[in-house]
Structure formats: C-alpha cells, structure tokens
Amino acid sequence: MNILDKITLDKRKEVALRKGLIPTSQLEQSVLFNKATVSLAKTLRHSTTGIIAEHKRRSPSKAVINNGLNVHDVAKGYEDAGVCGMSVLTDGKYFGGSLDDLLTARASCKLPLLRKEFIIDEYQLLEAKAYGADVILLIAAILTKAEIKQFSELAKQLHLDVLLEVHNEEELHKSIMPSLDMLGVNNRNLKTFEVSLDTSKTLSTLIPDDFVKVSESGISNTEAIKALKPYGYKGFLIGENFMKTDNPGANASQFIKDLAL
Q1: What is the pLDDT of residues 91-143, one digit of tens each?
Q2: Pick from 26, 87, 30: which is nearest to 59 by CA?
Q3: Number of C-alpha atoms within 13 angstroms, CB side, residue 249?
Q4: Where are the alpha helices (DSSP H) in 131-246?
Q5: Are 88 and 55 in contact (CB under 8 A)?
Q6: How confident is the model at residue 192 (pLDDT cuts 50, 70, 90)?
Q7: In Å, how far are 20, 51, 136, 178 from 185, measured between CA atoms?
Q8: How confident is the model at residue 225 (pLDDT cuts 50, 70, 90)?
Q9: Are 124 and 116 in contact (CB under 8 A)?
Q10: What one-character DSSP code corresponds to residue 82?
C-alpha cells in the first residue's frame, strides 16, 4: 500500500465521522456558504506570475516543514506579495492542517483559496464552501472517472473552481471533462517521492487549451517556472519553498521580483 492509499483509507474513516457530527444542513447554513467565490482559473489566465502559494506545516515526504507560523500572517504575507492564489492544506493526520486554517485564511485575505485535501466524498465540497474556499482539488489517482464527474459537476453548482491533479498519461485521459477548470500535473512520483519537471513537460501537449495548466511540486526556483512557461503552464503551486522560511510572504515577494528579471 503506497502513502496515497493509506491517506485515502484514513480519509474515508475521518469523513464518515465528521458527517455524523456536522449535518450537511448545518454546513449549508454557514455564513460563508453563499459568499461569492473568486475564480482562480481566471486569475491565472490574466497573471504574469501564476504563483499559487501554499500553507503547509508538514508532509509525509518531508516531516515537519514549519510549525511555527500562524495562518493569518502567512495569508496576509502572500497577498501583499502579489501571489495569484493560496492553497491551504486541511488534512490533519498527515499534513498538520485543518478546516480552521481555511477559515483563518479566508478572514485574512481576499485571494482565491484552494482547499488542498484528499476529496473522496461530496460532503467535503460542502465543507470547502462553508469554510470559505473558492477552489477544490480533485486527485485523479484516488478517484474513478464517475467520481471525478460527480464531484466536479457539484463543484460547478456550488460556484467552486476545480483543479484536477494528475501524475501520468493514464490519469489524464480518464479525467478530461468540461466540468474542470484547471489541470494540475504533479511532478512528484507518489510511489518514490522523486520529483521531475519532465512530468509537466511531457504531459503538457496532452492537455487541451480549454484548461488552465498548473504545475505542482518541485518548483523551488524561478528557473523552473521559466522552463515550464513555454509548455503553456499558467499556474505554479509552490509550497515548501516558501513555508520552510521564517517569512513565507517576504520570500514569495522576492521570488516574484526575481521572476520579473
């Protein structure tokens, strides 16, 4: 069993538990549930940098990245730096995140917010909306084609953007459908944790232009972005690179300045 299988198994138990604690009617009555959302896909299409900056305390591959920062400061810093959007990890067991992190980020900035989560149930989309997300992540490796369709179509009804993440050609072919906004290529091999930008380069030609192309994982310098832009990528998800510093916002700001050089 690889790490993704393990996380998914735990996620099913966790979601079943949460559904028992908070009924969907309660989520739908939350203050943020009817808030207008901001499209990350549109923001990326019109951006020169395409940076989606992440809040991530730890990960299975890196253990602790940064436990000492509060979400408010990180969100504010990212917004001041001029990033296009913010990704907030809400998985607790493996990444040290929570839905409260999403809520805090929402109260701290006006950026489009991505709920970075292992989504296996429609309930998690209602949670995302209730806690202030504008975008949800769907991971092709853990979902069937029918589930991708079901979840992405519900996301559209909720006015949430959909970023679908793939790791290889097979996942890409089963995933392409009109209810997606962005296609993300994860450069990390989930079985070995090795990272290669070649994954993004290889898959770029197979992604139709209707979708905003996003490259994820292993983007630690401006050279990587400059190398990927000719392949049609408009979005670049950067997590550890900013989070491993004492001031992710200032770091993101410098990164964006360097990118313009």
Answers
A1: 999 999 999 999 999 999 999 999 999 999 999 999 999 999 999 999 999 99
A2: 87
A3: 15
A4: 145-157, 169-175, 198-204, 222-228, 240-243
A5: yes
A6: confident
A7: 34, 15, 15, 18
A8: very high
A9: no
A10: T
With a CB cutoff of 8 Å and minimum separation 6, the contacts of 159 are: 36, 37
In contact, 125 and 152? CB cutoff 8 Å: no
Q: What is the pLDDT of residue 252?
A: 98
* CA separation for the pair 122, 151 (Å, rounded): 6
Ordered alpha helix ranges (H), 82-210: 99-108, 123-130, 145-157, 169-175, 198-204
Q: Report how far residue 227's alpha carbon sits from residue 186's, in angstroms, rounded to the nearest whole number.
A: 16
Q: pLDDT per residue over 153-188, tens digit each?
A: 999 999 999 999 999 999 999 999 999 999 999 999
Whether the pTM exceeds 0.85: the reply is yes
Please compute, for residue 113, the number of CA atoms within 13 A of its CA located in the half-sphere on the CB side. 31
Could you give the CA distance from residue 210 to residue 92 in angstroms, rounded to a whole number? 34
As a whole number of Å, the end-to-end CA separation of the chain is 45
The burial class, CB within 10 Å (0-12 / 13-18 / 19+), for 209 is exposed
Binning pLDDT at 50, 70 and 90, where does residue 239 land?
confident
